[in-house]
Amino acid sequence: MEQHQQAEPQKDNDGQKEGHEKHHEEHKEHIVTISVNEDPVKIAGPKATGRQIKEAAIAQGVKIDLGFVLSVEKGGPGQTQVVGDNDEVTVHNGSRFVAVAPDDNS
User: Fold this and answer.
1) Strand pairing partners for 45?
2) Which distant-in-sequence residues (6+ apart) come within 8 Å of 76 by Cβ?
C-alpha cells in the first residue's frame, strides 16, 4: 500500500509542473512601453522586428512611415544601431528607438 501512496504525489507533482510551464508560456509575451522619437509606444515583447516597431508606432500616432530608418539607442546618447525591418530585437520597458526619413542626414 505504501507504493500506491507514493505514486499519488508524483502524479500531483507532474500536474503542477505542467500547470507551471503553461502559466510560464502564457506570460512569455507581454506588453512593454518603448519610445520611438521620444513618443511612448506599447508593443508586445520580449522580441519585435523593426517593421513591427514601426507599425506599432504609426498605429499609435507617431509621425513616421514604414520607409523610415529605425535605430535603437545603445549605451549613451548618440550611440545607435540600425534595426532593419526583418531584424528582431529584444524590447523592454524604456527601450529607446529613433526613426528618421532615409534622406535625413541629421
Assistant:
1) 30
2) none
Q: HSE (CB half, 13 Å, CA atoms) of 53?
A: 35
The second-level CATH assignment, the architecture, of 30-100 is Roll (3.10)
pLDDT digits (tens, 9 = 90+) for 2-11: 445 444 444 4
The grid coordinates of residue 102 equal 532615409
Q: What's the rounded Cα separation, in Å, for the pair 77 and 93?
A: 18
Q: Indicate whether 46 pLDDT > 50.
A: yes
Q: What are phi and psi of 70, to 5 degrees?
A: -100, 135
Helix, coil or strand: residue 52: helix
**Per-residue model confidence (pLDDT) at position 40:** 98
Whole-angstrom distance, CA of residue 38 vs CA of residue 87:
21
Write the pLDDT tens digit of every residue in 10-36: 444 444 444 444 444 444 789 999 999
